[in-house]
């Protein structure tokens, strides 16, 4: 009975909509997880959002669009609360000009949209040309989510705390990657709460917060004396609620935007967290958005990150050949994003053209500040070429454009341009010593006088036993050649 009523009601509504001038029965039902966007709402819902979106431009009559619908809705469910999965009906009169202006020439066309580098800059729109499966879409979109998550280590933890007096949240995890879920939370709380992640191998801080299982999220709210530990599921809605104790997430779409009501319920469906069915796979901090899995032409893989020990092992020893290194803060933004994007593009270009020139790596500038200062350099982000074997380095200087950086790399390939020698003894164990010891020393001496932090420092001093330092990633490089200086830091 009820089903019948519901069914006939649905038919009636569809007929009604079809009959109404200007209303169109698009591919997606009202309750679809796909966010339905029009020429009018696109700006507020997509272009101005801090979140990443994928937008399908379709026509209801198009066969490939109909074929895509189930996978697209599945992707939307997976990405609920994490990224926006939207659709524009280009057959509707109100949207035709808009679809044309977006360069749509065939249906369906899928484009990812994410915020530009700087505040107020245009969003970055890229065509998605991967497979039209839910997984390929989820992976590609997850990969496009801007990363505002800081990575903290034992060494830079105090510095992270001392950054400012905003609340901070740290996810302790066994994973080396940052999940789309955590990235989305960092975007929700941009400029409100600093979101960070720390690996289980960071023995001092995991001990300090008494972390017993992974993942565990800890909230440091300056207004409460104790760290708050989250013990719910790793899902968007409850996490958002937990973090909201320390500050309100940015409203998205912005509160003043009142465009939507008579449109198709645009705001909350895909973005704001609904506790319900958001899928475990997408919301678990998982390894899923791994670039390497994807066909190369779809998404430009991010640069490989080198930890301090690897930096020596791969690029700063007496046998290492030329490496291109992007020294950037672990929480990228602005210029450092630009650096990474450009290098990722060039690395990708080289690898697809099969002339593997030099390896390109991302390096945390704060954790390796000593390398930079040893070379007499300063700055928040920079590109260096280094060659340990030949004992030279060069810094990229000039305007940051892909073409310029490419020309610079070509000049290195051709042995042109001025190079500088590393200070004597730096390459090899010198580099290892410098980078391993640096940040700890600086962090300790930089600790400001706020009570919380002093307190932290004391605890660190008391609790850490020497053997917790047996970090496998550092073994071999640092412990192979212990110096007095290193030993001092082992105790820290
Ligand atoms: C985007 O982030 C900024 C903080 O960087 C915030 O002020 C703004 O409200 C956010 N906008 C939206 C639409 O969430």
From TrEMBL:
It catalyses: Catalyzes the rearrangement of -S-S- bonds in proteins. PROSITE patterns: THIOREDOXIN_1, THIOREDOXIN_2. Keywords: Disulfide bond, Isomerase, Redox-active center, Signal. The lineage of its organism: Eukaryota, Fungi, Dikarya, Ascomycota, Pezizomycotina. Residues 263-275 have a biased composition (Basic and acidic residues). PANTHER family: PROTEIN DISULFIDE-ISOMERASE A6. Residues 276-293 have a biased composition (Low complexity). CDD domains: PDI_a_MPD1_like, PDI_b_family. Pfam families: Thioredox_PDIA6_C, Thioredoxin. It comes from Microdochium trichocladiopsis. This is protein disulfide-isomerase. The keyword Cytoplasm does not apply. GO terms for biological process: response to endoplasmic reticulum stress.
